[in-house]
Structures are given as C-alpha cells and as structure tokens.
Design goal:
The chain is of the alpha/beta class and 436 residues long. The protein has 15 helices and 14 strands. The chain binds (4S)-4,5-diaminopentanoic acid. The site of (4S)-4,5-diaminopentanoic acid has 8 residues, from loops.
Amino acid sequence: MQSETNQFKPFAESLKLQRRAEEFFPGGVNSPVRGFRSVGGHPPFVERAEGAYLFDVDGNRYVDLFGSWGPMILGHAYAPVVMAIRKAAGFGTSFGASHALEADLAELVQRCFPSVQRMRFVSSGTEACMSAIRLARGFTGRNFVIKFEGCYHGHADSLLVKAGSGVATLGIPGSAGVPAETVQHTLALPYNDLAAVKAAFAAHPGQIACILVEPVVGNAGTIPPAPGYLAGLRRIATEQGALLILDEVMTGFRVSLGGAQQLYGITPDLTTLGKIIGGGLPVGAFGGRREVMEQLAPLGPVYQAGTLSGNPLAMAAGIATLTHLIANESEVYAKLEATTRRIAEGVAQLAREAGVAVTANRVGAMFTWFFTGEPVTDYASAARSDSAAFARFHGRMMQAGVWLPPSQFEAAFVSTAHGEAEVDLVLEAARGAFAG
Ligand code: HOZ
C-alpha cells in the first residue's frame, strides 16, 4: 500500500461508512459495480482524488487504474478543469435554458469528430445510447437493433440483453423488470463475427434500424476489433439501409483524439459520447449525420429532452478538458500510449514469469488483463477467464496500493498524470501479487 508509511491500513472508517450506506442504498452503493461483489472484500471509501491517485478514508493511497471508469484522462482534480468549474459555478449551476458554453463545447467535439455534424448533449452515456437508437428507429422506420454480446450501452431496457459491465460481472443474462416485449427487437450477436451480422439481416430483411457497437469493447474487458471488422459493419449497414452507431463513450478522446472512428478510419452515421467530454462531470452526447439528427424534436418527430442537458458546469469542465487534449494532442497520446503499454505489457510479462496465464488486451490507454492463456476476441472467450484468479489478483493489488476496476469484465484506464513512478508502483505491486 502506498500510504505515507507504505503500510496497508485496514478498513475501519470505510467499513463504518459502508454500514451507514447500507442503511440508505441497496447494497450500500449507487451503482452495482462499486460493491466489489465479484472480487470479494470491501470497497474502500474515497476521501479525495488527485492526479493519478485515490486516497481512502483510512489513510491508504492507491494508483488509480480505473479513472472513474474513463473520464479522468488528465488525472484527478486537474487544475484547469477545477478552475473552469469554479468559474462557471459563480454564474449559476443550472439554467434549463440555452447558453454559450454549449456551442463552445460542441465546436471542440466536432473538430475531433467530423462525422458529428449535429449533436445533442445529455447527462450520461445511458441517455446518449437510448436516444440514439430511438432516433435510428425514427429515421429508418424500422424496429430491430443489433447489439453485441458483452457490449454495454447503459441500462436502458432494450439494451440490457447479454450486456457487459455490471451485468456480466454479476453473471446475469439481462435484468429482471424488463418485459420480453421490450427486448423482442434487440438482436444480441457475437462480437467480431461478420457472418452473424449478415445472417441477422438475412433473417430480418428491411427491419433492422441500426447496428450499435462499442468499436473497441470495454465493457467485457478490453477487446479490440479484428482487422476489417468495423469496416465490414460499415459496409453491411450501408448495403442494408441501416445506421451504424459507434458507442464511443469509452473510446472517444481516449484511443485517439478522434476516438476509434479516427483510429480505424470508420465514418459512422451516429456516435455516442460520454465521460471524457464532461471532464468528469455528468455529460453524454449523441450526434452524427445532419439529416438524421434533424429528425429530433423540435425540428422532427423523434422526442428527446433533459433539464440538465448542456449543464453549464459540465460544459465548462468538458471545454477545459478537450481544450487541453486538442492543444497537446501528440504529446498527450504519445504519453498515454507509452505509459499504458509499460503497465499492460509489464504486468503480463511478470505473469508469464510467475507461470500465471494472463492475456493482456490493450488499445491506447485502455486495457484488460484477462486471466486466461487464450486470446480474447469476444464475450465468450472473455468469459472463459479465471474470474477467481482475477479476484485474488485484484485483492492483492488493492492491498499493495493499486486500484483496478473491480471486475474481470471492465477496462482499466490510464491518465496523463500517470508517469514512471506510477508504472514502477504498479509493476512492484503485481510482482508481489503474483508471488503471493
Ligand atoms: N459503465 C461503467 C463502465 N462499464 C461502469 C460504471 C458503473 O456501472 O457504475
């Protein structure tokens, strides 16, 4: 543990706070994956976060390798972001009305994502994906949606089919409370399998509105697209008159400034974004081709709305974040690439030396150590990982001061605040974890 004394301090305050939280929240949490159920042990309660580190209420310090699930690409409490939020708050925290910062952020998003000709801000990735498929259905007049096993697009009813993230972590196929009728038009196919997509279109001719995909899967752990896979999806969607929606909530501004669509050279019809564009505040967005987006109310018949959409604090934090990424693009992404490679490959090498089967999947600054000796190319192969071995590793890393996402089926993230010192801490922790 990287506390001041380098000694792990047992959870006393965290446990007290957990018990108190359980008096108010189911499982003591406001989002299931925070409960550490699949890795065992208790979640530390965070006191503060700074740069590459999280500090818990018991006096422990952790190298943060989940970055609030992605948005903290510049590290925690990054001064320009904090200052922008403070300044914006002085002018009011919510208007429920239009203001100039919305277009300022939109301009930055569009500069990096030219396929996003028109966009709408929302408050979460869930809202972005839910709204994007409604729009795709409204635009095409079709009902079916193709998604992929292990991909997670938020917790909207129709998308909770064979989903990743917490759904995969808890080992459930979907969610109770979702009527069968609600998911009857959701087709969940294996990722990286173009033949399955072609077969789905053949089985439902003229009925599929869209293909919705995480271009690099993050929510089953990190799974890169096979060469030609995304181009194949693009081609099939165009041939079939369906829309291609890239869910870049995780990959946007992370795997490159222009996300996976820039990295792999794919132009989607619609894109969903989140996390990073709010600099850690609650923001999502969906956007794309102008004629599709103009089907949205008030111009068109597809309804979508939100009081907090375009919230001024969130816009300000997003502007500060994207401004930094754009101004320092080559330096930022070179550093993220180098740091993440050293961490991901360094730990995989230590695993090999210790005789532990680990497959490291990485794209830019997102990665996963799957506890399997096999390649991981889809949800089925991810699910063959030894989750118990991952859980043991997770617990040992936590005790050694490295906070990994608490699930085999989540991506880890690195920020620009991570440097040589943090790489060394992670490698040292992993060496100990594999030896234990
Ligand atoms: N959607 C996040 C990434 N899989 C997980 C965060 C959460 O569910 O709380």
